[in-house]
Design goal:
Blueprint lengths: L6 E6 L4 E6 L5 H12 L6 E2 L2 E3 L3 E3 L13 E2 L2 H4 L12 E6 L5 E9 L12 E7 L1 H8 L3 E3 L10 E3 L4 E8 L13 H4 L3 H7 L4
Antiparallel strand pairs: 1-2, 1-12, 2-9, 3-12, 4-5, 5-8, 6-8, 7-8, 7-9, 10-11
Length: 201
């Protein structure tokens, strides 16, 4: 019998659910990282931090405001150059990154459009099975700009907090290892994590 892929359920405070099939064959270390964070409740009770209408919904840029979420993993394309990454399109879920520092450990996002510029950089590690209507609702919520953001990008955050109540995972009896990590002492912290720890975000 073939192995079933793990499934994650994001339960929002408004009762909506986003159900994701994780794709270990497409991004094994990234899937291990998501599972690692979910088991440690990193995502729970977090207000979504960035919405770029018609582009993507970033769940966090501060490591989910928990030190346990502020870790980096190597870029999937460097760990597994033999894997052809899936296209980044609406209906998938992908993981962010911080240039030469490494890939975000658990800061995932939902693309709202085709993003060919992300292919091989921000790995697709899952596909949405249920809840696209909630993603589309989030796309249209009212936002306000984040002032003094440390990177040269426009950042808008929801005016009314859009909170993840909890993220649960079903691995169907399969054991998944902890991810391969980046040495944080050698790499340093992303600027947003530094600013958050300083109380400036």
């Amino acid at each position: 019998m073939s192995k079933k892929n793990p499934v994650a359920t994001i339960l929002m405070e408004n009762g909506a659910k986003i159900v994701i099939e994780l794709l270990p064959e497409a991004a094994p270390n990234t899937v291990n990282s998501f599972l690692y964070a979910a088991k440690r409740r990193v995502f729970d009770h977090h207000a979504i931090e960035r919405i770029v209408p018609d582009s993507w919904i970033d769940m966090s840029y501060t490591g989910f405001r928990k030190k346990e979420g502020q870790y980096l993993i190597p870029y999937e394309s460097r760990l597994h150059p033999e894997i052809t990454p899936p296209d980044t399109i609406f209906g998938c879920v992908a993981m962010g990154g911080y240039g030469e520092l490494g890939q975000a450990g658990c800061e995932f996002f939902f693309p709202l459009r085709d993003c060919p510029e992300h292919k091989g950089i921000y790995p697709v590690f899952g596909k949405v099975l249920e809840g696209t209507e909630e993603i589309l609702r989030l796309k249209d919520v009212r936002t306000r700009p984040v002032e003094d953001f440390p990177y040269d990008v426009a950042v808008n955050t929801p005016v009314e907090p859009q909170v993840i109540r909890e993220v649960t995972v079903e691995t169907f009896g399969e054991a998944y290892p902890d991810p391969v990590f980046v040495d944080m002492d050698a790499s340093g912290l992303p600027l947003t994590w530094k600013r958050f720890r300083e109380g400036k975000l």
